[in-house]
Design a protein that fits this description.
244 residues, mainly alpha, Herpes Virus-1, two-stranded antiparallel ribbon, 5 helices, 9 strands, 11% strand, elongated, Znf_TRAF
Length: 244
């Protein structure tokens, strides 16, 4: 749908009106036959039709193009009232800047920011509403530190709230202690398995060293026996030499 023509100040050229809704073009597109439409209007039309609503020429979404620049400039220069005119806004500005103004307009109806509140107020009155809103929150005046809603004042009990908080903290602490305990036990089991593996490896190495030592001692005894035999043979040869 386009902009309500009643909002505009002065004359609006016929060429700047949507051929479907007959209001001033909003986000315009143009067909090859040069008829212009609001984007939402022409897309809705082409769901059920395949021709131009003005001259019945065949058109397709792919054939739609942006408005000619000179027409776009004429459109942007049009002057219109803010949509919040009925609430008291007297602003008149160009179509090009109307969206920016209406996003910031002090007369715009906006929802209350408090959770649970369904009231809508003018932007300029929002601060005053928040000060008295029944859904506003504030810190407990008794010093328990809780944030409460005004509607819950009669139900708020500092002792009960703190007791509940304490129980939650206790439960959380117990869970954390259990998690730390399980993690420590897991680490100890891992270290224990690692130590057992290392002990087994060291035991095997010791046995291997003992075996090597035994072989070396056997070799030493063999060498000593061979040396004695060799010495005896030398002594015998010396005796025989003397006899000769």
């Amino acid at each position: 749908m386009g902009y309500d023509i009643e909002r505009f100040v002065g004359y609006v050229n016929e060429g700047l009106l949507c051929s479907i809704c007959r209001d001033v073009l909003e986000d315009p597109l143009q067909a090859p036959c040069e008829h212009a439409f609001c984007t939402a209007c022409i897309h809705g039309w082409l769901v059920h039709h395949s021709n131009c609503p003005e001259d019945r020429q065949v058109i397709d979404v792919s054939l739609l193009r942006p408005l000619y620049r000179y027409m776009k400039n004429d459109l942007n220069r049009l002057q219109l009232h803010c949509r919040n005119r009925e609430y008291g806004c007297e602003m008149v500005c160009s179509l090009e800047s109307i969206d920016r103004h209406e996003r910031e307009c002090e007369y715009s109806q906006i929802p209350c920011s408090n959770a649970g509140c369904t009231v809508q107020v003018e932007r300029r009155n929002l601060e005053g509403h928040l000060a008295v809103c029944e859904y506003r929150s504030r810190e407990c005046p008794n010093g328990c530190g809780y944030t409460i809603l005004s509607a819950e004042d009669t139900q708020h009990n500092c002792v009960a709230e703190l007791r509940t908080e304490l129980e939650l903290l206790r439960s959380e602490m117990i869970c954390r202690v259990e998690e730390a305990k399980h993690e420590m036990e897991s680490r100890l089991d891992s270290q224990r398995r690692h130590m057992v593996q290392k002990e087994s490896i060291l035991q095997n190495e010791i046995e291997e060293l003992k075996s090597q030592m035994s072989r070396m001692m056997s070799d030493v005894r063999s060498l000593m026996a061979a040396e004695r035999q060799h010495r005896q043979e030398l002594e015998q040869a010396e005796l025989e030499k003397r006899e000769l």
